[in-house]
Amino acid sequence: MAVSTKPTVYVTRHLPDEAWKRLWEFCRPASWDFEYSPPSAVLRENVTDKAGLLCLLTDTIDAELMDSAPLLRVISQCAVGYDNIDVPAATLRGIRVGNTPGVLTETTADLAFCLLMAAARRVVEGAEYVKAGRWQTWGLTLLLGQDVHGATLGIVGMGRIGAAVARRAGGFGMRILYHDRVRKPALEVQVGATFVSLDRLLSEADYVTLHVDLSASTQGLIGEAELDLMKPTAILINTSRGPVVQTAALVTALKSGKIGAAALDVTDPEPLPGDHELLGLPNALVVPHIASASSATRLRMAMMAVENLEAGLAGRPLPYSVNAPD
Ligand code: GLV
Asked: Can you give the pTM of this predicted structure?
């Protein structure tokens, strides 16, 4: 029997069929097919003899794991964010790391805007009200929300996704403020946004939407002092990473009416336990990290991750790379 010379890879979750079929053309994949992440011991055991790893943002890929995989040449993350990977450790070990930027921008912006609108107009509460059989009549003051059109949107982090949210806001005639590490004059003109300090954004915005990467400088970015600056009617939307917001401070702000509401795709901790205090608050809307979850986008992300894996196994620079180990 002929022995395959194709490199071996480990895939930490079930991939769409098209991506899985493509993988078999250039490697021998083994996969973990459960809904949750492989436990760290399982992950470690499975990468020991692998040349490639295709992983998700819920897998912790640290130096210890890399040291248990002496043949590893490429780590391909099927997500745009990669704060779960110790990239400097990978670079030091000559391992290429890739992600899936760009393809999920519009889909993620769709969900950010959807959360904004749902919270503004109390869509989930309305649906629950009807389902509970409580709808008796048209009510002049029933489930009053707040307007989106003409309101002020504050975008924290004006990268690809922040800009895509700004374009949507333009269609609603919103006034757009943004804050970023760097000012983006061309984009300001394109989307009609004004650069302001974070404090000014927080104090003037009716809606604050977060689009920063998770890093040492953004961890806990929105805490008690920042929530204090926001309007009592303001709505906070987070589709970035949970730890950008200090959960305990957010719970206090929502309970005391310091801010109006929060609409979250990401939380800290994540997943949020079913009995978490946040879930008992009428002004918190939480969905399970689904911002990029359209069938088309998830397939594109998987195909990009496969493309990165193929390049890395062949010793080529990755088409969507986050480091340059050589
Ligand atoms: C999702 O959160 C991603 O980073 O792709």
From this structure: 0.95
